[in-house]
Amino acid sequence: MIEAIWFLIVTPALFGLMARLIRGRAVAVKVAILIAPLALSLFAAVAIVQTTGSGFEAATPRGAILLMRLNMAKALFLIPSTILLLLALLVKAVGVTGALPGKIYGSFAIIWIAAMIIMGYGKYYERFNFRVEEVTIKIDQLPEALNGLKIVHLSDMHLGSFHRKEKQLGRMTAMIDSLEPDLIFNTGDFITLGHKEFGEKEAILSGYRAKYGKFAVLGNHDIGTYLDNAASEDIDLTIQELSGKIEASGYTLLNNESVTVEIGGKQVLVAGVETRGRHPEIVHFEPKHLIPDSTLFPLTIMASHDPNHWDTIRESYPEVDITLSGHTHGMQFGILAGRLRWSPSARSYPRWNGLYREGERYLYVNRGIGVLGLPIRVGMPPEITILRIEGGNYGYSDKKTGSEP
């Protein structure tokens, strides 16, 4: 409803302003100037109608896509149009005359067009440009049987964002399977709102396998956190239904529990905890007896959706060698160029992507597979991580930045 009112106020005002700006110009010039705003206004109108009808259900694969289209309409039309109208009021209030107003509006138009091009690139190309990030982690006194262990780490699939994009999801599956991992971890957020978003994707997610098992935890979106007016029974149903779909995809779901995996005669401890709530009020579960006697396990791996949990994990569970997290998406926008790494997500998450080390403990943060909010990624391609565990003095190296600083 808010978007509809916003649209009805902004659209007439925008075209009224543009009519004044193009007065006296040739017909061809008028058409060239008006065609983009007209197309965007139609796109916004359709997006608003589709998400306000009585039959609209947000927590479905189609609903997830329609909500992201609405966000695109805001970003491409409603917000820029509002800024342009406010700019016009400011120009009039200040009394700017002569050629300067034309230059101001022309500069704004260039920025608007550039934003459209960047968002188009992020929507149609980069959000499906799956990148394999290879990292080597060294663990002191690692048994020979575990030397060379390959772990694939995935996160934040938000499967609703792959509605009618099963081909791309299948390509991701093939890439994962080609890595021939020993273990696969998925650190949560399979969905955005409700369990129906998962759709019928169990068959696709079952397509990648691991020699010793696939493990997953629930992220904060998987708990039904963002369902509108969700009652406790809605949340319980979301968890129940989603858990069944995750397990049908070949995963062992770790709800605040740990299991042992035998590899070459050695026991590896694998643990996972739930994450609930909304930022900044995220709730991490920390069962007291989650980690048994650490002397029995030469390698302990913890999956926890939120990377900010790592500080507590190092205190509460000092036995954990490697923690795997996701959650940040790298804000789906930023720069990854060798040692130059920047994202707005760093403001809320000091450890927002990549490998981090404190003494003998490691954290890896995966920037996710799917998208949330806007259906774009710019400078933050979806990530499939392959972690190779080797014996040796504590340290790491990766193909992005070279050896550990």
Global structural class: alpha/beta
DSSP helical segment count: 8
Shape: elongated
The helix/strand series, from N terminus to C terminus, equals: HHHHEEHEHEHEEEEEEHEEEEEEEE
Mean pLDDT across all amino acids: 92
Q: Which fold name is given in CATH as the topology of the largest domain?
A: Purple Acid Phosphatase, chain A, domain 2
Tell me the CATH architecture of the largest domain.
4-Layer Sandwich
Radius of gyration (Å): 24 Å
User: What's the level 1 CATH class of the largest domain?
Assistant: Alpha Beta
Low-confidence stretches are 401-405
Overall description:
By secondary structure, the protein is α/β, with parallel strands linked by helices. It is elongated and about 85 Å long. The N and C termini lie far apart (51 Å).
Features:
disordered C terminus, single chain, 6-stranded mixed β-sheet, 405 residues, Purple Acid Phosphatase, chain A, domain 2, 36% helix, alpha/beta, 8-stranded mixed β-sheet, 2 domains, 18 strands
Topology:
Blueprint: H1 2-21, H2 27-52, H3 61-94, H4 100-124, E1 131-139, E2 149-154, H5 166-178, E3 183-186, H6 202-205, E4 214-216, H7 232-248, E5 251-253, E6 257-263, E7 266-273, E8 275-278, E9 281-284, E10 299-304, H8 310-316, E11 322-325, E12 335-337, E13 340-342, E14 354-358, E15 361-365, E16 383-391, E17 395-398, E18 402-403
Parallel strand pairs: 1-16, 2-3, 3-4, 4-5, 7-10, 10-11, 11-15
Antiparallel strand pairs: 1-17, 2-16, 6-7, 8-9, 12-13, 14-15, 17-18
Helix pairs in contact: 1-2, 1-3, 2-3, 3-4
